[in-house]
Write a structure and sequence with these properties.
This protein has 124 residues and is an alpha+beta fold. It is 42% helix and 13% strand.
């Protein structure tokens, strides 16, 4: 319940800040004869116009993304770590070498009598 109230509060603050920035409303205060009054002027035509522009702009962005993904199926460029995270090697194996694949960086040696692979347990 608190999460819903927090979301509602955040949306309200965002709407008020955006409205203030886009001049959807103006707040003014006046003092006369010892009394203070606050006036809020809302411009619904400006709100409607800005929302329509935002929806159209959002639609254009989505259409551009769809067109770009359909016409440009290029894979992402390979970075320096791309060969590390993919199986195999970027270099072909040498003659008589292994076929590639995952290889451990370090590991226990077959004749190692000390301890079992960093667990601190002696081997039997």
């Amino acid at each position: 319940m608190r999460n819903i109230l927090a979301l509602l509060g955040a949306a309200t603050v965002a709407f008020l800040a955006l409205g203030w920035y886009l001049s959807w409303y103006q707040v003014s205060s006046t003092t006369s004869h010892g009394q203070q009054s606050v006036n809020v002027s809302i411009d619904p035509n400006k709100i409607t116009e800005d929302v329509k522009k935002g929806v159209e702009r959002g639609g254009e962005i989505v259409d551009n993304l769809r067109e770009r993904s359909a016409s440009d199926p290029k894979p992402a460029p390979a970075g320096p770590a791309s060969s590390f995270f993919t199986p195999g090697s970027s270099n072909p194996p040498a003659a008589g070498g292994s076929s590639g694949g995952w290889k451990p960086i370090t590991g226990p040696k077959p004749n190692d009598d000390a301890r079992d692979f960093n667990l601190g347990v002696p081997r039997n």
